[in-house]
Amino acid sequence: MAESVIKETLQACNFLKNITPEHLATIVEFCSLEEYKAGDYVFRQGDFGDDLFVIVDGYIFLERAMDIGSHKGSVVIDALGKGRTLGCWSTLLGESHVLMSSASCQKDSTVVRLKGSPLRKCMEEDTPFGFFMLERLSFLLRERIQAAYGAMDKI
Question: By its UniProt entry, which Pfam families does this protein fall under (predicted)?
Fold first, then answer.
């Protein structure tokens, strides 16, 4: 059952829009389903991160702690629901990366964890797939930057 949920979730998410059935079958092999309770964190700002996450069900805030003069606390960068993607692609870049935000579950949530190391290996071994993934990651990065700028405007 988990494999079918993973496959359906990845097929339906915008992040992997237009993925080939062959590449989908490959990456499903190194995905897992994870469940979190409301109030849990999928990851925390300052941790090292390597994986991507696609929300199967639930609601997750991307938050950034801040300390800018008199402005201290956290700001919500984005509120993500079913089918949305979050996480870090440092493994895809081949170097360690400290997470710049936290992902907190606002209600019970289930996510697909897509492991970064095997994804990078697939990208290196299959140039067209690697280009496809880099393009998809670029769109995700653009979306996050736009959300971060929007959050900054509210400060």
Answer: cNMP_binding
